[in-house]
Amino acid sequence: MKSVIILFLVFLVFDRSRTEESESTGPNCEQILSMPLLDNMEATLKADLDVRTLNKFLQTFIREVVKIEVANVIHEDMKKIMNESVSDVESIFDDRTNEMKLGLDSKFDELTKKIMNESVSDVESLFDDRTNEMKHGLDSKFDELTKKIMNESVSNVESLFDDRTNEIKLDLDSKFDELMKKKAAI
Fold first, then answer.
1. Where does the record locate the signal sequence feature (predicted)?
2. 3-class DSSP state for residue 49?
3. Confidence (pLDDT) at 22
4. Angle of CA points 16, 19, 23, to nearest 5°
5. Which of 22, 24, 114, 151 could pair with 31 as two cysteines, CB 3.0-4.6 Å apart?
6. What is the DSSP letter of 1?
7. Mean pLDDT calculated for residue range 7-28
8. Torsion angle of alpha carbons 178, 179, 185, 186, nearest 10°?
9. Total number of domains in the chain
10. Around Cβ 51, how many Cβ atoms within 10 Å?
11. What is 6-47 written as a DSSP string?
């Protein structure tokens, strides 16, 4: 109820001061305004108010109220803007983090595949190298054995040939001696 009376009072004072502004302006204004007021018992009272002092008080009061309300509105708006900004930043951060994670996961998978492929290639290459070394070693051993067998075979063949040749020679010599003996006997 008091706030209604104060607002009514403010309205009347401003309305009255606007209409009488030309009469009560400047630092020397001493016009007195009579205004009806209501007390708690709703009885009409009459007060004589100094317009200049009342105007200063009301201007200060209105400035403070406006200042507080504007500060509250700005504070609420800034709080809302900050919350929205923080929410937007968090959303962007989450999106970028997820994008980076997906990118890193795919790069990790690619690297893993590449390493596995290189490992398989390395294993295949190592296997091929070892196989070739073993084949070369076996070929070398086979060649050595072949040469050895051939040398032994040739030696055996030569020995066998020499033995057979000697046998044939002895046989021929003995037959030749017999023929010579037969010829000499004839």
1. 1-19
2. strand
3. 44
4. 100
5. 24
6. -
7. 52
8. 160
9. 1
10. 20
11. HHHHHHHHHHHHHHTTTTS-STT---EEEEEEE-TT--EEEE
